[in-house]
Every structure is written in structure tokens, then in C-alpha cells.
Amino acid sequence: MTPASPGRPTPDAQPFMSDETTTLETAAAPARLLVVDDEENIVLTISEVLRLEGYEVDVASSGHAAVQLLDRGPEYDLVLTDLHMDEGDGLSRADFL
User: Fold this and answer.
1) Which of 28, 35, 67, 75, CA to CA, is 20 to 30 A from 88?
2) Is there a contact between 39 and 69 (Cβ–Cβ < 8 Å)?
């Protein structure tokens, strides 16, 4: 067997994480997520990956649009937001949550 290069596991290395995984899904229904970003390609990529994993995903292209979605419901289990958007950062909207 050849030694592994730094940062690369050997082929027979055991995984670092346990077999148990943590997920936001419950037995009743998948978690509902809101993805907020002003870059369309980012929103589309993240939301599609999350949908493929079984989550219900809504998207907003601005902090203002996100606040409107949060105002009228439904309730979200997790909000993923960009920290640097044209109209302000995601943290400035965090007080609304």
C-alpha cells in the first residue's frame, strides 16, 4: 500500500462521520426551507439540490421578498440567506425571524 498524500484518506480509511445522519425531515412531512439570494443561479442550484434531497423549498430573490413570504406563511423550518445582497445583508433581516 502506498502512503496517502496529506489531506487524502487511504483507501481503507474509516469514514469520519458515523452512519447516523441528521436531517430536518420529520416522520410526518419533509422540512420546509426558504432560500434567499439575489443571484438567480445560486438560488436555483441550492433549491434544486435541496428538492432532490426531499425538502420542500421556496425561494426569494431579495430580503424584502423573503419578509413577505415569512409574513404570509407558511412557517419555515430553516431559512438560508445570502449575507451580501444589493439591498442589504441577510443578517439585517434576521431580527424579523
Assistant:
1) 75
2) no
Cβ count within 10 A of residue 37: 24
| CA distance to 35, 59, 81, per residue, from 42 (Å) | 9, 11, 11
pLDDT digit string (tens) for 35-85? 999 899 999 999 999 999 999 999 999 888 888 898 888 899 999 988 877
- Which of these, 30, 34, 28, 48, lies nearest to 82 by C-alpha position? 34
Please give the backbone phi and psi of residue 95, each rounded to the nearest 5 degrees, phi first: -65, -25
Cell digits for 37?
439570494
Q: What order do you get walking across the sheet with 56-60 strand by strand?
A: 56-60, 32-36, 78-81
Question: How far apart, in whole angstroms, are the C-alpha atoms of residue 80 and residue 33?
Answer: 8
Which pLDDT band, with edges at 50, 70 and 90, does 89 fall under? Answer: low
